[in-house]
Design a protein that fits this description.
The structure is a homodimer of 389-residue chains. Chain A contains 13 helices and 14 strands. With 389 residues, chain A is an alpha/beta fold.
Chain lengths: 389, 389
């Protein structure tokens, strides 16, 4: 119950999303008294979260002052940690990076080694962007495995030895002294893609097709994490050949037949030198018929799962990302074919299916966006303005 | 942007859901000034939405006055319209019926005939419960087909000739002069089951297995309707025998192999006198092995679809309702078997799967709950208190 339409945080949100640009519009939208709006806007101006930006056109009298969100009122730190490759950034409050790096740091080195490296690189980034530590408002971290979002801990992550139960959030909050949000990599990619939309839709599915297959769900305008933070785990839906055992130990998982690692394995068995997903993509781009056919079949199997999801959730947008999305038109075409054939007509009336706009930037954008949404939420603003005051 | 923690509606919600019972607790929970809370509570008391209910235990001084939601501050009308059988009620503001009827009225008679009948019966119910029309605050209607919730119109309903595009909401609002909410039958059943839970969970799936198969989704504490109001349509997920064509015209739909009509058809082909779902249930209850086996196979196929949904959404509860749910333990056991076998361990950690508690009452309870949630929402309260004032 931390804040609704009346709070400074809610007023800030109306300015940030473009719903209001003047005090008068805030009065209209919230139904608050003019004096209350003025008082709260003044406090946001004092905290430099809002700035005044000249006059608006007026039908007479003094033109009203335009209010603008100050994207430079602070910064957030963001990390998108992968199995071997990681990206880190310091970003302004619209998630645009002020400085960024990427580096090779195997997640399997364990939490102490990886997070010490992250802390060192974060300090370096703040220095590079010439940002003093007092301006740091929050941190967003993406991990390549399941995360219990409420506590910020990794939960039984299959490719992250030493991380199970590790309290990533407390460790980083102790070092950095600001709120730290931790989520899995696919959820932050979904947030990043959503954040980058010109007009964010309410119901949206992001599908990552890389070594494995996962998804992130925006439902009703919020990231849907489910009861255990396990939502979106479509890679282990059992649809495929039950004689193929997945790395998770179960038979017939979608990613065991249709993920990048599975395609590389199958093409290797056919005599090609495909070690990882990128090798499959290279073969497809070179016009290799067997590779194209393998990707097309994967697209059809993924499409069948997505058709089920479309009937169930009736989203208005599906975005396909991950390394295999770079394999070209064949994957997208086969996914679309099966989704439109197998879903009900009503549920696809508004549906668009496209590949990612952000590509490799989705994760780092989403990690920053997750931190920003938290610190600028109505409850975050209350904490923030107390501290700034 | 109609109202947040500061509004009278938000204060009422805190009392209704048991979060607060005194003015002091409202001050603590909202961060509002004591004088603001008092003023808004006074207005809710004046409108009779709250009542004072004696003193609370106190550590000294005058005991604080307990505030209670007045379930008799008004009534709602509710209708759960089925293909042939309908239920109507006038209910208090916790969805308990003050008077109720059920009747046979084929939906295929068309909107004019059916809604005229509904209006007549509504008037009779208000009379029977001795409720004056001024106390009517809202109306909730469930229809046995797709509904565009935002406009309150039926959309291409397969078993409702004459209803396509019919504006149910406007028609009834014109006659009754209060807000009218219209949704499909499975969504209101999901709402009803959710409303009846002692501790409502955030993520919940209601599955109706009757003549056909459908579902209603509560996600993040809200009914999820999707971009076109088509969410939850699991009966037409293509999983079954592709040579069996569904009544929707597509091959292999789940309900074409596993719904009550499909089982009745298959048992009829095997020489039994099964016309409708209830006949299948009767055979199962009589211990007929073929019928039990048919239901068990349906349970496994439904379970496979639910396993996919569990991996995707990670709900904490699944409730099975509809006529076929009365077929006994076999259906539930087979659904559970397949869901727990085929879903990931993390996604079933907290999952419970059970049959409906409300049974045939789910729809009418949910229709009333839908109307109540609307009229007592923060924006509904604003409208209401203006009118009452």
């Amino acid at each position: 119950m931390a804040g609704g339409s009346g709070t400074p945080g809610a007023l800030l949100k109306l300015i940030r999303d473009g719903s209001a640009t003047t005090r008068a519009e805030l009065v209209d939208l919230t139904g608050l008294a003019r004096s209350t709006v003025s008082q709260r806007v003044d406090s946001l101006l004092a905290d430099r979260l809002l700035i005044e930006a000249g006059g608006a056109p007026s039908s007479g009298g003094r033109p009203p002052t335009l209010l603008e969100f100050n994207r430079n009122a602070g910064v957030v730190l963001a990390a998108d940690l992968g199995a071997t490759h990681s990206r880190l950034a310091v970003s302004d409050l619209v998630a645009a990076p002020l400085a960024a790096i990427s580096g090779e740091k195997p997640i399997a080195d364990g939490p102490e080694a990886v997070l010490s490296w992250v802390e060192t690189e974060f300090a370096r980034l703040l220095e590079e962007a010439q940002v003093s530590e007092e301006r740091l408002l929050g941190v967003g971290i993406g991990l390549p495995g399941p995360v219990e979002f409420a506590s910020g801990r990794a939960v039984s992550p299959p490719i992250m030895p030493g991380w199970d139960g590790y309290d990533v959030r407390s460790r980083l909050e102790r070092r950095l002294g600001v709120p730290v949000l931790v989520d899995n990599d696919v959820n932050i990619m979904a947030l990043g893609e959503w954040w980058a939309m010109d007009r964010p839709v309410d119901d949206f599915l992001y599908v990552k097709i890389g070594t494995g297959i996962g998804s992130g769900l925006i439902l009703g305008g919020h990231l849907h994490r489910g009861a255990d933070g396990a939502a979106g785990d479509i890679g282990h839906i059992q649809v495929g050949d039950p004689t193929v055992v997945c790395r998770c130990g179960n038979p017939g998982c979608l990613e065991a037949s249709s993920g990048g690692a599975a395609l590389a394995r199958d093409l290797r068995a056919a005599g090609y030198d495909t070690e990882v997903t990128r090798d499959v993509v290279a073969l497809v781009r070179a016009g290799n018929a067997e590779a194209i056919q393998a990707v097309a079949e994967a697209g059809r199997r993924i499409g069948a799962v997505l058709a089920t999801i479309v009937n169930l959730l009736n989203p208005s947008e599906i975005v396909i990302g991950g390394d295999l999305a770079d394999a070209g038109a064949e994957l997208l075409a086969r996914i679309r074919e099966v989704v439109y054939r197998r879903s009900t007509a009503l549920s696809t009336r508004q549906l668009s299916i496209r590949t990612s706009e952000l590509g490799d930037d989705a994760g780092i954008t989403g990690a920053a966006a997750m931190a920003i949404e938290h610190v600028l939420s109505p409850s975050g603003i209350r904490r923030l303005t107390r501290e700034l005051a």
